[in-house]
Amino acid sequence: MREHVLLIGGGGREHAIARALEDSEAELYACAGNKNPGIARIAADFETVETTDPEAVVEYAESVDATIAVVGPEAPLEAGISDALEAAGVYPFGPKRDDARIETDKAFQRRFMRDHEVPGNPDFETFDDAEAACTFIDEYGGDLAIKPAGLTGGKGVKVVGDQVTAEEGKAYIRESDYDRIVLEERLIGEEFTVQAFVANGEFRTAPAVQDHKRAYEGDEGPNTGGMGSYSDATNELPFMTEEDYDDAVSIIEATVDALDDYRGILYGQFMLTAEGPKVIEFNARFGDPEAMNTLPVLETDFLEILTTARDGDAPPELEFAERATVCKYAVPAGYPTDPEAGAKVQVDEESAGDALLYYASVDQRDDGIYTTTSRSFALVGVADSIGEAEAIAEDALAVAGEEGLHVRHDIGKADLVQRRIDHVNELRGE
């Protein structure tokens, strides 16, 4: 029987998953709150569904005879989509609600790491009282990262000594409506991500990726969901050693060992410090944009990964092409603080040339595709080197034009990559 795979979510990450399944033996179905035209082109059917409503998702899954479901975003995981699908007899490649707390509850995440002696855990304290958190900031002997315990779409963190002063950080805590706050030591270094495919107590890892959260070139401006990312033709990035990558994998291994019956993607976001990798956070799904770096170079059949997980087997050994990737997001002008929707998207999969086009949040109308107020689309170059991949992405962005859009053109460029290398060498006293 041909597998009927249900893809849950409608962003760039999910478009990358859909493309990874496009040439497999799967019959693909999709549901999301927004209709992604790239996914709709690939899927046999695309239903507009509130993906945080387990009953609605299960009803659609049953209507298409889904045998496996892939959960893309974090909010459906927090809503218990995987639990509901499994109860209905559909295997979910995505953790149940309790296991997804490794992402959805940052206070739980830190305590979990401490209780299970997972390495790479920074100093932290958790608070449900704003004034107690502010007192801790006053008394702590260094800079702190301020994190709401729940989901904030990657935009809720404020770092004292980088984005805000101590007084501004305390004002942020007092003025916000967050029930719980996590305060963590500020980690100094270079960020990177390692994504692991996890099933039946075992895991396989993908090459490291570096995301760029700041909105403007030179790592300036407010945080976003991610403006773009790059990977190298090796497992590690140019500013990392093989040992750095292996140390990050060891942290993932300790985390998988401590989690019971986890399945899906475990995304480790790390800071490479002078003492080695430390954990910034874990996510319970593919990164967006990091999925768009990882899946295009995955040579192992993604459907095989899903079926072996469902059948109780260890994940297959993963093969990745020895190719570099550069992903650049085009976002609406004014994003993220005052985004302006309604610009017509001038590039499509054909005119993107050698680049891969992934749609995220767009509005398909009779006369074309238009931007919304969220990240619009990503263009990904794949080549033998980061520089060549960056040039491919830039050529496609030239077709897309600049009207009504904003892009971080510096992602993947040689001078920015060299800055990362120099930063780590400085931290290590080299």
Task: Name its key features.
430 residues, alpha+beta, Rossmann fold, Dna Ligase, domain 1, D-amino Acid Aminotransferase, Chain A, domain 1, 3 domains, 6-stranded antiparallel β-sheet, 5-stranded parallel β-sheet, 23 strands
CATH architecture of the largest domain: 2-Layer Sandwich
Spell out the CATH superfamily of the largest domain: ATP-grasp fold, B domain
Average pLDDT works out at: 96
What fold name stands as the CATH topology of the largest domain?
D-amino Acid Aminotransferase, Chain A, domain 1
Shape: globular
What structural class do helix, strand and pairing data support?
alpha+beta
- Number of H/I helices: 14
Note the main sheet: 6 strands, antiparallel
CATH class bucket of the largest domain: Alpha Beta
Strand content: 25-35%
Q: What is the number of beta strands?
A: 23
What are the low-pLDDT stretches, counting only 5+ consecutive residues below 50? Answer: none
Q: How many domains comprise the coordinates?
A: 3
Terminus-to-terminus distance: 58 Å
Q: Gyration radius, to the nearest Å?
A: 21 Å
Walk me through this protein's architecture:
- The chain is of the alpha+beta class and 430 residues long.
- It has three domains: 4-96, Rossmann fold (3-Layer(aba) Sandwich); 123-185, ATP-grasp fold, A domain (Dna Ligase, domain 1, 2-Layer Sandwich), CATH 3.30.1490; 190-420, 2-Layer Sandwich (D-amino Acid Aminotransferase, Chain A, domain 1).
- Helix content is 32%, strand content 27%.
- The protein has helices at 12-22, 37-42, 54-63, 74-78, 81-87, 97-104, 106-115, 130-139, 166-175, 242-258, 291-294, 302-310, 386-400, 414-427, and strands at residues 4-8, 27-32, 45-48, 68-71, 91-93, 124-127, 144-148, 158-159, 181-185, 190-199, 202-205, 210-211, 214-216, 220-223, 228-231, 264-273, 276-283, 324-332, 356-359, 362-365, 368-371, 377-383, 405-407.
- The strands form six sheets. Strands 12, 15, 18, 19, 22 and 23 form a six-stranded antiparallel sheet that branches. A five-stranded parallel sheet has the order 3-2-1-4-5, sandwiched between helices.
- It is globular, with a radius of gyration of 21 Å.
- It starts with a strand and ends with a helix.
- The model has no long low-confidence stretch (mean pLDDT 96).
